[in-house]
Design brief:
By secondary structure, the protein is an alpha+beta fold. It folds into 2 domains: about 1-30 and about 170-199; about 40-155, OB fold (Dihydrolipoamide Acetyltransferase, E2P). About 35% of the residues lie in helices and about 25% in strands. It is elongated, with a radius of gyration of 24 Å.
Length: about 200
Amino acid sequence: MLKKLLLCIVCALLLLSITFVADYRKAQACSCASPRAMDEIMQGEDEVFTATVKGISKPGGRLLSSMDPIEVRMIVNKVWKGNIAAAVVVKTAQSSASCGYDGFKEGGSYLVIAEETPNGLYTGLCSGTKSLASAGKELAYLGEGYAPGPAAAEPVESKHDIQVRQGENSGYGHYILLAAAVMLAAVLWAAVILSRMKG
């Protein structure tokens, strides 16, 4: 009887741990307001340009969150708003679940609507960034743009920056580790109880 009770407790803790992680991930789901009109975007603080993807760098680490940013290296073709260099790096969350724009493909061309932040250009699912093939309406509104500025020298990432970036890649991984620790503790506790019963 006691063995069945212990088994039920372990199963319940396992189920609770899985539910906890699933609920956390669901809470991260992105919800955008209605799409912004181009006149609103042009009056705001966003940078607006078209560019072609030359490469995509994903975050390292074993336990990743959908919020961890990817870095998209782009060659800028035309600019409508902002002081944009001919070659830029645009960051976005790696999953649309965290409002990242996950449509970037190497070699693809895009209308990019990005925010200038202290850490560089950021875009996302709610920004209005889209593939050039589906941006006909926006491009018709924008009309003639202007050429980008000279390409800026690519910054060298310091050892400290690398350590900070790697430390930020934990995402919701610590929640998974917590759930695993709870399950392990429950199994060990059950094993101790059973060994005492046999003794």
